[in-house]
Queue: 2 jobs
Job 1
Amino acid sequence: MITVLHVTETPTLFDWAGGSAAFERLINAFYDRVEGDELLTPLFPGGVSDEHRTHVTAWWSEVFGGPAEYSSELGGYHRMVNKHVDLGITPEQRYRFASLMSLAADDAGLPDDPEFRAAFVGYVEWGTRIALANSQPGADIVQQAPVPRWGWGVAPPYQPSN
Ligand code: HEM
């Protein structure tokens, strides 16, 4: 008797989005919007540098399943978390940040299937709430933690079996 095993691998969110080039487009589109936003510009006086954009692209790529360069080259979670200390992010700024991320995903032509976008905004919601909490004066901050690796959650992409 022959048994046929059908194995379909679920792609990482990084690969599904289009890899490094897609995350570069996303982060540049996002900070282009930030630079024109009256609520967020006070947090980025003088604009958002190429270096900042490159670092944040590395963070997002790693979180979504791409190369772990933010951990190996830039200082990992510890560096990211300390960048937010004492920024005093307001709930309005958090919400604006999250909204602009969703719009930037459209600007950058990221996949717009409901499964990908649900996972994407799930991470945005999670990350922005953590950033807000960590940015408050006197916040009790976890200094060392792994960079998260985000997944599809309950709805991976629908892949017909034949
Ligand atoms: C999903 C949520 C977020 C992620 C993944 C994220 C990621 C990062 C990373 C990786 C850095 C450090 C870049 C480097 O290594 O040089 C950073 C810095 C920064 N983030 Fe966030 N962030 C998030 C939410 C927010 C929010 C909600 C705000 C404000 C509304 C914010 C404001 C900033 C600012 C102002 C810096 C620069 C600080 C400095 O260089 O002095 N972030 N962010």
Job 2
Amino acid sequence: MAEYILDISGLNKRYGNIQAVDNLELKVEKGTVFGLLGPNGSGKSTTLGILLGVVQKDSGDFKWFGEEPTASQRRRLGAILESPTFYPYLSGIQNLQIVCKIKEVPESRILEVLEQVGLANRATSPFKTYSLGMKQRLAIASALLSDPEILILDEPTNGLDPQGIAEIRELILDIAGQGKTIILASHLLDEVQKVCTHFAVLKQGEKIFHGTVAESLMGNEGVEVLADDTESLRKVIGTFPSFIDMKLNNVGRLEVQLSKETAIHEFHEYLIEKGIVLTHLAYINKSLEKQFLQLLSAKS
Ligand SMILES: Nc1ncnc2c1ncn2[C@@H]1O[C@H](COP(=O)(O)OP(=O)(O)OP(=O)(O)O)[C@@H](O)[C@H]1O
């Protein structure tokens, strides 16, 4: 049976006339990378704030490790809610020494966590010389100092360039590989698609979807084709019996939607019979983006 590390029921938070969290029900399984996905203002940060005891809930309950929240339990959680403040002139090590004192964690952990986040070679450089990605990795190192069972991250790749995003993604997967549960809030579908195992979608504080990433990505969205003569290709595709729709994409290929039961080899054979030779044929993989946008518009 699944072991739930977090169980939220009927959680509510209102700011004036804004319902930031609306009767939220959510369970997170141990060992998963859980993405809390939603557009700006959908209540992700407020939810994480409540779960970490820094925002007061109006009503509802949540349990960490199957128990009512307590201060000692919170020590089992490592979190970065907003960019932590580090001292710019102090090195990575010196900054983490301060965190160790505050968290009452032995300093012997420092080199271990710096190694883990790939900052060991810059451990003695002043924080102000770090790139944005390195600063974020130091923040994650800081959250890992107490060796928490759960790591909670709010928009961990915000403001980073593609390389920085990829580094953080690798790091999250690496930490998850060590058996830790990770809960991350994000408005980036790609991020959730690439690192999360499970996700929930929030809209105006309300949960509108909850499921696994693998199931959401199952199947395909159609095929992408290319031939030397695009106009003839278009005409012939339009006569294929299970044709639904097609459009030219940004790289000049035709994206074709066929009815679900269509076998792609039949489609290909049909084109050959009609004298069309394809120079490219590929499945279009499902993305969370399309489904996310459909979910959001369906519930508006
Ligand atoms: N302290 C506050 N006072 C008043 N309104 C607030 C406060 N904090 C959040 N809100 C409002 O509550 C709603 C949810 O905000 P929240 O920051 O939780 O969303 P979010 O999904 O994390 O958004 P973002 O991705 O922009 O951080 C928003 O409408 C926001 O304006």
